[in-house]
């Protein structure tokens, strides 16, 4: 018997017909002869739930004496940059003698900081106040970083544009009116412009790499589980990744050394190395060539119809420079790469809807119960204020669950197939390269009817989302400028994505670092006057 009870409490609210009402939406019924028994069992589980709800929660307790939070505030207009890049400003001073001493860090506004209201880019619910610090926050402070604020993220992280946040639009630091990418929009703008040294972002389909590409900074999505997701708002645990945005690959490597490693809480990170046991920074910092490297140009990543000629040529030119650095460069094909967006879409819609509805279970880790209490259950008022992408996730997820009951399992299985196919390529190649995004930053969209609102983000993750499905590490570095689609006088950054085998971050970081050491991406501009 799963529920032990001796008697039902006098205040128990379960009444006759409640069990039947629960099953009615599923077109299921209870035999009348069994109705009373199921009412009794439902009443018993209600009493059990009341007892569990009364127990104290078990959250990691941050050391706010050692790391006090100073001057927490919503920034005033004169404190904002690039539109609305900051969510909250504050200061937490890190260990003065750590390896990141003197470095300033912002956190995507989905990463828990005790005492700092979290907005999640939304106004569906009031901001909620975490009582714990995310694991990455604790590690950054111990390493000496000063955390100076949370940066704006897109509405519930459901966009790769930068105009969907309820807090306001984030402007591209290279051109007002153009997207900074999403959903780590504010953090990418802050890093690219030198307002902070590092941002920690979340990436469920490209949310680190897309804004890094649009803003001209380095964005690293590590191997799934390399960095514990403890204290970070989840989209789908199979797609959840956290990692750094920086201005150089070397700094991304240094940051990864600090935040990586299993924390004893998050089961995503069970396969990760012991904290402090990696030294990616030391491994790459003196590298000056790529002798012996085999680099694969992934044809499907370049030949997709969504990839603009300017982006394609800019990235291909950057890849060819690897030959001068000692690497062998050759084309490679994996047709199943093109299946990635569809597999990711189905997986994300189903799991994303379950997460939004409070039905995603089965993980061993930290559950942020305060956030769940604040945002659930959904109300029609909240749903009406949700951005169309969030409404679409819920509608799609419910439909897919009802009409295709085995489809989530199919996507998980096919995702494993895709991962195996990539792993086969990585027995022959050290890294694969392709454009991070198919275009440079587009103009901001507008909050209009759903299709118009979603259009600016469509197709941007054709080369990024697949690696959330497979879990492979992927690095975006800026490799030049190309003209905006609507104005060839506006030059915007182009990102090149470097992908490696599972747990092979060192290889992609080395490939990025050596390229950076020899070439200045800011001097490389695509010419619109080519013959």
From TrEMBL:
<dbReference type="InterPro" id="IPR036928">
    <property type="entry name" value="AS_sf"/>
</dbReference>
<protein>
    <recommendedName>
        <fullName>Amidase domain-containing protein</fullName>
    </recommendedName>
</protein>
<dbReference type="InterPro" id="IPR023631">
    <property type="entry name" value="Amidase_dom"/>
</dbReference>
<dbReference type="Pfam" id="PF01425">
    <property type="entry name" value="Amidase"/>
</dbReference>
<feature type="domain" description="Amidase">
    <location>
        <begin position="94"/>
        <end position="509"/>
    </location>
</feature>
<dbReference type="InterPro" id="IPR000120">
    <property type="entry name" value="Amidase"/>
</dbReference>
<dbReference type="GO" id="GO:0003824">
    <property type="term" value="F:catalytic activity"/>
</dbReference>
């Amino acid at each position: 018997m799963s529920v032990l009870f001796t008697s039902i409490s006098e205040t128990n609210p379960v009444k006759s017909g409640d069990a039947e009402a629960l099953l009615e939406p599923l077109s299921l019924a209870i035999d009348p002869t069994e109705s009373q028994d199921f009412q009794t069992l439902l009443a018993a589980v209600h009493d059990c739930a009341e007892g569990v709800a009364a127990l104290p929660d078990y959250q990691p307790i941050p050391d706010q004496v050692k790391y006090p939070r100073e001057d927490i505030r919503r920034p005033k207009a004169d404190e904002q940059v690039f539109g609305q890049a900051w969510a909250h400003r504050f200061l937490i001073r890190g260990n003065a003698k750590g390896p990141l001493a003197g470095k300033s860090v912002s956190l995507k506004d989905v990463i828990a900081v005790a005492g700092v209201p979290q907005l999640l880019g939304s106004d569906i619910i009031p901001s909620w106040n975490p009582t714990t610090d995310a694991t990455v926050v604790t590690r950054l402070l111990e390493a000496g970083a000063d955390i100076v604020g949370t940066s704006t993220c897109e509405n519930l992280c459901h966009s790769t544009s930068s105009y969907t946040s309820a807090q306001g639009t984030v402007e591209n630091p290279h051109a007002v009116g153009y997207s900074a990418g999403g959903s780590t929009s504010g953090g990418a703008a802050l890093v690219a412009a030198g307002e902070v040294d590092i941002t920690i972002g979340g990436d469920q389909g490209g949310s680190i790499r897309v804004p890094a590409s649009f803003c001209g900074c380095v964005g690293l999505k590590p191997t799934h589980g390399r960095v514990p997701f403890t204290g970070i708002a989840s989209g789908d645990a199979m797609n959840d990744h956290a990692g750094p945005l920086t201005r150089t690959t070397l700094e991304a490597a240094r940051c990864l050394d600090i935040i990586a490693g299993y924390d004893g809480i998050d089961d995503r990170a069970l396969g990760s190395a012991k904290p402090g046991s990696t030294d990616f920074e030391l491994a790459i910092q003196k590298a000056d060539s790529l002798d012996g490297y085999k680099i694969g140009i992934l044809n499907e990543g370049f030949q997709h119809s969504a990839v603009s000629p300017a982006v394609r040529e800019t990235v291909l030119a950057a890849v060819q420079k690897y030959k001068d650095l000692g690497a062998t460069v050759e084309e490679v094909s994996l047709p199943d790469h093109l299946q990635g967006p569809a597999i990711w879409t189905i997986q994300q819609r189903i799991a994303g809807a379950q997460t939004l509805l409070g039905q995603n279970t089965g993980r061993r880790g930290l559950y942020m119960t305060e956030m769940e209490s604040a945002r659930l259950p959904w109300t029609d008022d909240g749903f009406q204020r949700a951005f169309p992408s969030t409404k679409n996730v819920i509608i799609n997820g419910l439909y897919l669950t009802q009409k295709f009951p085995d489809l989530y399992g199919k996507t998980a299985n096919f995702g494993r197939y895709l991962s195996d196919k990539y792993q086969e390529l990585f027995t022959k190649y050290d890294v694969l390269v392709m454009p991070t995004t198919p275009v440079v930053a587009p103009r901001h969209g507008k909050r209009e009817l759903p299709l118009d609102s979603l259009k600016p983000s469509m197709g941007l993750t054709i080369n990024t989302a697949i690696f959330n499905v497979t879990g492979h590490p992927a690095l975006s570095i800026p490799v030049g400028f190309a003209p905006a689609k609507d104005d060839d006088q506006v030059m915007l950054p182009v990102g090149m994505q470097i992908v490696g085998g599972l747990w092979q971050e060192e290889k992609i970081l080395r490939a990025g670092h050596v390229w950076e050491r020899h070439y200045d991406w800011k001097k490389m501009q695509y010419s619109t006057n080519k013959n």
